[in-house]
Design a protein that fits this description.
Layout lengths: L4 H6 L7 E2 L2 E2 L1 E2 L10 H13 L10 H21 L7 E4 L2 H16 L5 E5 L8 H10 L2 E5 L12 H4 L4 E7 L11 H10 L3 E5 L11 H4 L3 E5 L10 E5 L1 H4 L12 E4 L4 E3 L13 H17 L1 H20 L4 E4 L10 E6 L4 H9 L3 E2 L1 E3 L4 H7 L4 E5 L6 H17 L5
Parallel strand pairs: 3-15, 5-6, 5-7, 7-8, 8-9
Antiparallel strand pairs: 1-2, 4-10, 9-10, 11-12, 13-14, 14-17, 16-17
Helix pairs in contact: 2-10, 3-10, 4-5, 11-14
Amino acid sequence: MPFDIRAIRRDFPILQTTVRGKPLVYLDNAATSQTPQCVIDALTHYYAQSNANIHRGLHYLAEQATLAYEETRKRVATFIGARSSREVIFTRNATEALNLVAQSYGRATLQPGDEILLTEMEHHSNLIPWQLIAKERGAVLRFIPVVATGALDLSRIDTLIGPRTKIVAFTMLSNVMGTITPVRELIQRAHAVGAVAVIDAAQGAAHRPLSVAEFDCDFLAFSAHKMCGPTGVGILYGKAEHLEQMPPFLGGGEMIHTVELTHSTWAEIPHKFEAGTPNIADVIAFRVALDYLATIGMDKIWAHEEQLTRYAAQRLAAMKKVTIYGPGLEDLRDAVIAFNVKGIHPHDVSQALDFEGVAIRAGHHCCQPLMRRLGVAATNRASIAFYNTFEEIDLFISALERTQQFFGVAS
């Protein structure tokens, strides 16, 4: 279908919102995306027509709910190019998915002195789980540094990856700077020394086509709520050969095969990792979100967002007293722009823009080590989705100019 931005925006009721009498300009998509009406309708339909627990009941509603839940698993597998839906595990969010890998795979395989390679620009969700398991298992954390342009410094990669490297975990797309990670190169480097590659795709999956088969990654995590889906749904992809060898992450109902008083055996994957009643309604609604994205086309989404991001970066770069962090205008960045205004605290910028109807994010963005690497305590962040427009970028820039004037720092 053609990319019709006006028709797309009509699909999102919240985009018609006014904020203090001004049209909402929502540029906080890296925190969470907005939800189209079709997904909202799917949630309502589940509770109105097929609300039941899954996998256990033999009655009609239970069968319908189970079928819809497992259809989402198949849809996710197709969307990410997995070999089988058995390789798709539902969690609460990408954070839980990454913790699952660290606590299950990491605990089962890491030995004292083994190394885990990360990058300096990781979200806390792909840093703290590895800190915890490294401390428990006596493993060593190592980091690929970030240079001033926001790119990874791979000049010393041969000294960072070696025979003791067991896990290489990295973001697909920086949630602060929009830096696009050299995914395939890092995966190849990991596999060359027998390490597994773990991708945090919480940002990347929402913006560009991806294929876990083409990547040949071992694990990949992302969240529904950044992809027009409901909150409370995370996805972990894992190669079946890894998942089958990993111990359960949580214990309880549904993840068992047999239970005795003193011991138990586990269900087959993926159910071994899905203890208890899951977030049924939101998982079912996520399939509708994936269908919606696929109907538009991830390639078209990427192309539109790339144009918008470049335009926004150019407008910001033309403003005096504005510093942009990450790739320059000549380099490719994706959907995220971190910036600061000299003389105005990021929180003040964000609050002033909110009075203009413009929603951005201010803070450390769950990347405190990266903030220290950039030499700042916090930044502003404008993050773009496919339903944003060039007109909205102009409104954002105009509001930022008025903010500078209000604080007396206009050029």
